[in-house]
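Give me the 3D structure for Lipoprotein.
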Amino acid sequence: MKFPRASRILSAVLLSVLLLTTACTPQAPGRFDQAQQESSRQKTGQAVAKNATQGNEFNKFFPNETAGYQRVYTQEKKGFAEAKLKKDGKDLAMLSVSDTTSTPGAAAKFSKSTKKIGGYPAVEVGNTQTAVLVGKYQVKVLSRSPSFTASDRANWIEKFNLGGLAELN
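Predicted structure for Lipoprotein (169 residues):
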């Protein structure tokens, strides 16, 4: 009669040892472990600079709604604000202001600019983006409709309160 009890105790001890040894065995690295370690070590590009301007500070510099155009704010965070430009319910463009303190490379592209919009250095990025640098702030208009041209983007950049934004510096 003691034999079945001893077998239960022995199986419980063996099961415990098995669980303990498998739980303490180091696992082989997974296929994403190296990428996770590398991204965890990176310091640049992960956070917004502490001295970046709050996104809600930018809203007052966006163009006012006019003649059938609607401005709909879509994102606001430290160092960035964005709004959609709509007409007749259709997205025409994305308007944004960003603080380049967190991304110094963003301001570098303006150093060789020969074009100006509103008195500020301007660049065209591809066929859909136009941007100006106002101090440390980048004002960008991104076409969302093929009918919204580079001249439309430049006109909308000029509708921003660029002088007010320059004083925010």
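The CA atoms of residues 4 and 10 lie 10 Å apart. Let me know if you want a second pass.
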